[in-house]
Specification:
This protein is mostly helical. The chain has 15 helices and eleven strands.
Amino acid sequence: MKFHQNVTLTKYPFEGCSLCVTDVGLRQGRAMPKATIAEAATIYLAAREIDLGPRTWVGYRSHLSALATHFGPDYGMHRLTTDGMITFFQSQLRGDVPWTRKPGLSTIRNRYRVIKAFTEFGSRPGRAWCKPGLFEGVRLPRAEPPQDFIQLTADELLTMVESTDVPRDRAFLAHLICTACRVGEVTSLKLGDVDLDNLTVYTRIHKSNRADSMPIVQDLFEEITRWLVDYQDRVEAPLNNAWYLYPAKTATYYRQGRVRAYTIRPDVEMQYMSARRIVRNGLVRIGYNPAGLTQEACHTIRRSVARLYFDSRMGDGYSHALRETQALLHHKSSATTEMYLRLDIDRARRDDTMKGKPFILGRAAQTRGGVKNGGLRVAG
């Protein structure tokens, strides 16, 4: 059963669940008062296909697979209880999970959110697959305090690019910096997505499954142009629009006393581990200790660029800068952008309304006809 291109339900507990999810009535679950977890998960994933990007959809599938693995794919949704959900999440926290390493707290919290939405979907009137309110009483530990991530300066970002010798890697880093896109949104680009005449790049936003024709700034234009020349020289053929913009490549290796240069694989997408290696090598080149980069990778660039852009737009006011940064990051709400930038909107509004302005004592003095001076009434 196929929901997304190149994404199929294989090697998962609900593999082979033979449901005709194209039927509207079955999608809504009206014909299945006692659906199993496998059946319900299949219908739910088909319903969410429209509003989820392919990679986000895969994450949802993974979370529902953990639920089906714990209870069994043929376990009836109507048999789920609050105590059973508590037991499930306790096993997740202990790491009692088969065929995978212990999930981190952030993964478990995301799993909580996805499975809660799944059970709410199944308890709506007309479906009644499971009891409502299954998550009442299910509590997870508090999230750990946010880590102090690296905030790169504009000079550090520039040095990271300039110190990279490989044209593909230079252009890839420049693309991350000049667009603040997620790494998967950049590695999935094809040559046909780039329009150098109109200075736009057609980008598929994975979180929302929407597209955006993003502008190509001058710095990125120069790096992409340089890379495309090298690209064509290495493949020794005219560039094909169906090829990846930043494809995978073989490693440089030694054989028979000679260095064998890498070769480009234009029809293979660059893997995340390769992209992370490019960014971490760049961080090391500008002076960061490799031992301290365990939590730093491609998202370090996205966070740093977002903060630099926000600060550069603060001259037009807080709200205006926040909305522009939200558009840059493709967030659905400004609240998400505030959390991403670690801004405190209440403190910002407090400062705007109070700095250098009359408060309680000053306003009282004004009503009595005195002269305001730091909130004190001065005799005339």
